[in-house]
């Protein structure tokens, strides 16, 4: 009776190819799942009552908010007027040579002491707006908010930024112990075209994955804060 031929074991090269294929597949699922989550949260507008509304910083020019920042401030003012929170917190530091920080420019706009393009809204009371002028990125700004929250007794926050930035900023705030939700603005150049939206979803996917791996900021100059 003929002995069956012994089964050949997969070669080392085949094992390596299988491992590489598995790693690529897992990485693709993680990246794709994160991108889908960024897109999903970007579509939400959570305006539940909170202790504060936080306006994440963006570029300003000698105290005048950029289009991106002004869109956020407009939205934050609407949230205040709807009674979402009794206090609005603007955040963001200054770059070298700037006369104003992003937080100061935001506060000036909300108080009506800087130009409001096409806006006839009344300004907010001065004791209802707090500017936190530290933080050169999202993580630094959220950390400043969390530290101020401990002193003020704030426990919850609605974060105003751009849609694609919602998940990362909300995640950071929750990691610092705040009950946090996102109410993004739907106006401004970042939401103007489909191509821009796709670019920012890709960028935010990478930034969020980097943060989850390192708990460090993905420093950039995109204007997302």
TrEMBL record:
Origin superkingdom: Bacteria
Domain DUF218 intervals: 51-205
InterPro entries: Cell_Envelope_Assoc (IPR051599), DUF218 (IPR003848)
Protein name: YdcF family protein
Organism: Allokutzneria oryzae
Source taxonomy: Bacteria, Bacillati, Actinomycetota, Actinomycetes, Pseudonocardiales
């Amino acid at each position: 009776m003929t002995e069956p031929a012994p089964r050949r074991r997969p070669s080392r090269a085949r094992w390596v190819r299988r491992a590489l294929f598995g790693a690529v597949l897992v990485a693709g699922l993680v990246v794709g799942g994160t991108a889908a989550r960024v897109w999903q949260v970007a579509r939400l507008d959570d305006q539940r009552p909170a202790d504060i509304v936080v306006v994440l910083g963006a570029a300003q020019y000698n105290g005048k908010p950029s289009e991106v920042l002004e869109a956020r401030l407009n939205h934050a003012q609407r949230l205040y007027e709807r009674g979402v929170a009794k206090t609005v917190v603007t955040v963001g530091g200054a770059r070298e040579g700037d006369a104003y920080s992003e937080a100061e420019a935001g506060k000036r706009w909300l108080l009506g002491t800087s130009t409001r393009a096409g806006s006839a809204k009344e300004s907010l009371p001065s004791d209802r707006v707090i500017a936190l002028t530290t933080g050169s990125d999202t993580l630094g700004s959220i950390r400043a908010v969390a530290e101020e929250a401990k002193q003020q007794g704030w426990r919850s926050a609605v974060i105003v930024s751009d849609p694609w930035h919602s998940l990362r900023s909300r995640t950071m705030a929750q990691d610092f112990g705040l009950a946090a939700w996102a109410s993004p603005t739907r106006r401004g150049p970042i939401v103007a075209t489909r191509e821009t939206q796709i670019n920012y979803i890709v960028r935010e996917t990478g930034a969020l994955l980097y943060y989850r791996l390192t708990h460090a900021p993905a420093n950039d100059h995109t204007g997302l804060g």
